Structure formats: structure tokens, C-alpha cells
Amino acid sequence: MHRIQFIIMLRIKDLRLVRNRAELDTLPQGKLLINTINAFSYNNALKDEQFAEALMCGDALIPDGASIVKACQWLKHPNAPTERIAGWDLFTYEMERLNKKGGKVLFLGSSEKVLLLIKVRAREVYPNIEVETYSPPYKQEFSKEENNTMIEIINSSNPDLLWIGMTAPKQEKWAYKHWDRLDINCHCGTIGAVFDFFAGTMERAPLWWQRNGIEWLYRLIKEPRRMWKRYIIGNTKFLFYLVREWLIFR
To answer: Is the pLDDT of residue 238 over 80?
Structure first.
């Protein structure tokens, strides 16, 4: 019964979303947890209460998916987003703003190889930003000691910007669970694949695909064996959940 109540509570119409890129300017300074949501993460949140709580209770939620934007508009969300804001958009916005004044950024997650490529590219693109990195162990669950190590690294770094990239839902749940122990005064974004995009180890869809809301299709074409469940089955499930919400709460 508890699970049914929670699933009903997690409605698309209840999501508090940043409506457009211009609203990124209105996000308050200081300690702020920024998550993203798309059809894949919404599907997973319906069966993972900790993940749902992390998304719903963060400080800002970015509509990283044309499906979320269209679903909000179709369901007549009272504050429906007017455009998709990809994790990449959040990343470039925050990095460009920090680069103007100078400061430090910490990348937590991914492999040593990817993090090294990030450092190299950041020196070229954002020369006024000092880059620190940490690659946590690649495992599903961290030990208490490993969690403490990551927290200590973040706190001792005292960054002006923090990026966490461990893939969803791991990154969102980790940041939310340990948020009170992070002694920082900056924005923190959980941005997953953006680490690889910036490092150049994964290719983003060309602009035409992005602008027409079919970046997911480009990724499916490029990596069909890895992405078919996420996009073919996942998108079908998302449509089912969308119709179900419309039928129950219209």
C-alpha cells in the first residue's frame, strides 16, 4: 500500500521543473543540488522510492528530455517547461559563468582516463578554472569508508562548482543521501554522460537531432545493442505511465 501511495504521489504534473534556460539565471547562489530528469529516470523513479525522493527533494530539477517537456505540456502542467534543458546545457552554463570570474571545479565520478581528458580539455576551453578530479571505485554499492573518502575529498577541495557523474540513479541517490555532510557553498549537478561528452569519449547527436527532440534516436542508432531496452521498451513504458496519469488525474 505504501508503494502505491508513493507512485501516485510521483506525478509528472507535480514535478517542480526549471522552465527554460533563462531561468538558470534565477537559481540562487550557494549550496544547491541540481538534478536532471528524462523518460528513463522517470520510469526508474516509479520503482525506486529513494531515487524518486532524491529527484523530488533536490533544489532544482532540469527537464533533460523532450519527452518530459511534451508530457508536461500535454498534461497541462501548471508550470510546464517551454524547452528542453539538457545536462550539457547546464554544464556549459555553469562552467562559462565560473570561467568569467575564475574558480575551482571538482569532477567526482567516471574513470581516470575520462577525468584526465576532462582536465586537458578544460585547460583549453575554460582556462580560468582550476580542475580537480576523483574517480571512485566502479561498483554498485560503496562501503562506509569509500563514502567517507569521497565526502572528505569534496569538503577539503571546497570547490566553486561540483559535478557528480556516476550514472543515474546512483549519482542522484548518492548526492541526496550525503548532502547534509557536504560542507560546500556551491552548485552541485548530477550530470552523468556529460563527463564523457566533454572528454570526447562519447559523441553527442548533431544539433539537428537535438533541436528536434530526437537525440535519443541518434544514440539508439549509434549503440543499438546497449540502448534498445532503454529507448524502445523504456519509451513505451513512459507513454503508458503518461496515459495512466491522464486517465486517473484528469
So the answer is: yes
